Amino acid sequence: MIKKFISYYRPHMKLFILDMVCAFFIAVLDLVFPMMTREIVNNVIPSGNIRMLYIFTIVLVVLYVFRAIFNYIVDYWGHVVGTRIEHDMRRDLFAHLQTLDISYFDNTKTGYIMSRIVNDLNEISELAHHGPEDLFLSIIMLIGSFAMLMSINWKLTLIIFTFVIAMIWFAITKRKKMAESFRNVRKKIANVNAQLENSISGIRVAKSFTNEEYEMEKFSIGNREFKESREFAFKSMAEFFTGIRFLSNMLNVVVVSVGGLFLYKNVINTGDLFAYLLYVNFFMQPIRRLTQFTQQYQSGMAGFERFIEILNIKPSIVDKENAIELKDVKGKIEFKNVSFSYNSKNNRVLSNINLAIEAGKTLALVGPSGAGKTTLCHLIPRFYEVDSGEILLDGINIKDISIKSLRKNIGLVQQNVFLFTGTIKENILYGRPDASFEEVVEAAKNANIHDFIISLPDGYDTYIGEKGIKLSGGQKQRISIARVFLKNPPILILDEATSALDNETEIIIQNALERLSKDRTTLVIAHRLSTIKNADEIVVLTDKGIQERGKHEELIEKNGLYASLYNAQFKGFIPDDVN
Ligand code: ADP
Ligand code: MG
């Protein structure tokens, strides 16, 4: 773990070493000051050599100017190192997240991922910057000032050292308690954030059910727990700092009284006592730094562990060695004995599915909601892996095809359109980011949305709000269709693309979809059966598997499940379970 952590320093080694060297000089300069004071008090002043005092003063000023420069470097460039390391980790984490399977995101809360990326990395950054420096500085300071104290007066040093050990013990145990309470605070704030995210995204639902008060109540629980955890944390923080302050004052008292006694007995002289007091107070700083370090280390490493935990999750859907790059895809798709389940193998969503779509033809999939139609579609771009059987594209098992080249050849239009925050143009360009503006317009025309877009004051540069909230369902769907037009894949999957729309919009979109599916292998799921009458083959899927297949006329003639679904709709009645 530590090794992995250190590996993140490697690209920033030069800056890191600069940081450490400066930290070292800061420690040395700090250690020099009491010695010079002692020299002034013991020798310079009694000798009456005032010129010497001026020289000492000038030397001190120069040394402190250097210290200021080193200080600046440590404060600025040291933090820069921490920030860069954090940046690299965030980059790696994000890149890794992009490779993970869809099933990972099915099972992981967005808030959890967010808190890894934001909170944990922040703590890691703190550790990355302050950790080595704190450890290094405090060790030098402790050893250095201890050596100085011993050299000035070892008896006094041994007396106060027992005191110092007690202080370190107090600091570490108290600090631990404090750190725990602050960890608890972070957990609570994560809850508040998650709650907030959920409530704000669902604010329209909350309002429509007039459940604002219920939402406030839910929120107030987390909010109160957060407040309480903070109050507790501040209590332990106050205990810690009060205790430390008191103990260090006591330390001064011990030094002054015992040292005073020694001075009286002539065991020690004034300059020694002076320097002594200064060194003793130096002790406080490394102790504070050390306790800070132990805490930073704990939370930073805990964060780093969670970070590594995610990095170690290996995607299970990956390219085989020598995966095939598709060229000139015809688009024939075959399912051979395909079985699939999401979690447990006993809970099969699809069993022994066999079907084939010839290149350029259209296959329609109908059946009740929950039959597994969407699941079946998601197997083609390998969003999920089949448990058994195989799916072939142009006769090649899709597991042998590179995932990128497989997905490049498939266009997916779904019922729930997701648009990214940004402009209309950006969202259409998502289909093929290197397309020209003319191509974007062409795609929009094909998707029957161009006229609408240019009627807007900002045209293609219209900002569509978060997830496209400023557009109607039909407009969003048409933008998503334009996106696929631009991508121009030979295979098309239309998963209830029109079921959320009103009749009139549906006709416009149906028209765009027909244009889109021309000359492409198309798998269409539609809840309005009239839209699939012209399919080359219709497959009726229920939770028992494929029940019927054939052309529209054949199935009507057969007078089975399809016919009853169709007739029910034709009479203007759409059964609930037909989706
Ligand atoms: P359809 O599209 O025919 O309505 P789906 O393919 O969406 O049906 O769902 C088929 C079954 O798989 C349902 O029982 C559903 O609960 C389950 N299911 C769908 N998606 C997931 C998922 N991501 N994880 C676990 N189970 C799922
Ligand atoms: Mg579905």
From TrEMBL:
Keywords: ATP-binding, Membrane, Nucleotide-binding, Transmembrane, Transmembrane helix
GO MF annotations in UniProt: ABC-type oligopeptide transporter activity; ATP binding; ATP hydrolysis activity
Segments forming domain ABC transporter: 333-568
Domain ABC transmembrane type-1: 17-299
SMART domains named in the record: AAA
Transmembrane helix as UniProt keyword: yes
Entry keyword Nuclease: no
Chief site of localization: membrane
Pfam families reported for this sequence: ABC_membrane, ABC_tran
GO-annotated cellular components: plasma membrane
Matching CDD domains: ABC_6TM_YwjA_like, ABCC_MsbA
Record InterPro entries: AAA+_ATPase, ABC1_TM_dom, ABC1_TM_sf, ABC_transporter-like_ATP-bd, ABC_transporter-like_CS, P-loop_NTPase, Type_1_exporter
UniProt topology in membrane: Multi-pass membrane protein
Highest taxon of the lineage: Bacteria
TM region(s), chain numbering: 12-33, 53-74, 135-152, 158-173, 246-264
Compartments in which it is found: Cell membrane
Protein name: ATP-binding cassette, subfamily B
Species this chain originates from: Caloranaerobacter azorensis DSM 13643
Phylogenetic placement of the source organism: Bacteria, Bacillati, Bacillota, Tissierellia, Tissierellales
